[in-house]
Design goal:
This protein has three helices and five strands, in the order αββαβββα. By secondary structure, it is α+β, with helices and mostly antiparallel strands. It has a five-stranded antiparallel beta sheet. The C terminus is likely disordered.
Length: about 160
């Protein structure tokens, strides 16, 4: 899980992105398995979008693998009244942007890629810090003596 300080940094990045690109109607950062990290999505259920993003990501990864196009980078969906763009954000997160139909798609990609890279750095760095102490604690713990499964541990006399 990403620590609260980094979640706040991710939310700040989403809000700055929305301020830079006025035709964005929502921005969401999620783990690759569909858990919301941070969102600025007025009027949209963030948990549902994160879950759908994870499903679309799974299909996209399979498509890039099957066609030999390399690792997943981005996905763009155009609906009748706007766009949904999803960008890789480091090794364990994705950025999904909701945009109005009038948006300049080139600008959407430029800003989305930059924000995805920044969010990826924040999330990956936070996860490394969280995992590093846990791994060190596991290595530092003395091994526990094994007991034979058919022998009971000694009991204190009563």
């Amino acid at each position: 899980m990403v620590p609260e300080a980094e979640v706040r940094d991710v939310l700040d990045e989403l809000q700055r992105l929305r301020a830079r690109v006025p035709l964005l109607s929502g921005a969401l950062a999620a783990s690759t398995d569909g858990l919301v990290l941070a969102h600025d999505t007025p009027g949209v259920e963030a948990e549902g979008v994160a879950a759908l993003t994870a499903a679309a990501l799974g299909v996209s990864i399979r498509m890039t693998d099957a066609t030999g196009r390399g690792g997943f980078r981005e996905l763009l969906v155009r609906g009748g009244s706007g766009y949904i763009a999803t960008y890789a954000a480091g090794s364990s997160a994705v950025l999904t942007l909701l945009a109005e139909d009038r948006i300049n798609v080139g600008r959407l990609h430029l800003e989305g890629r930059r924000a995805g890279a920044r969010i990826g750095e924040l999330v990956d760095t936070a996860l490394e810090r969280v995992e590093r102490p846990a791994a060190a604690a596991t290595r530092a713990a003395p091994p526990r003596p094994a007991t034979a499964p058919d022998r009971a541990l000694p009991q204190r006399p009563t």
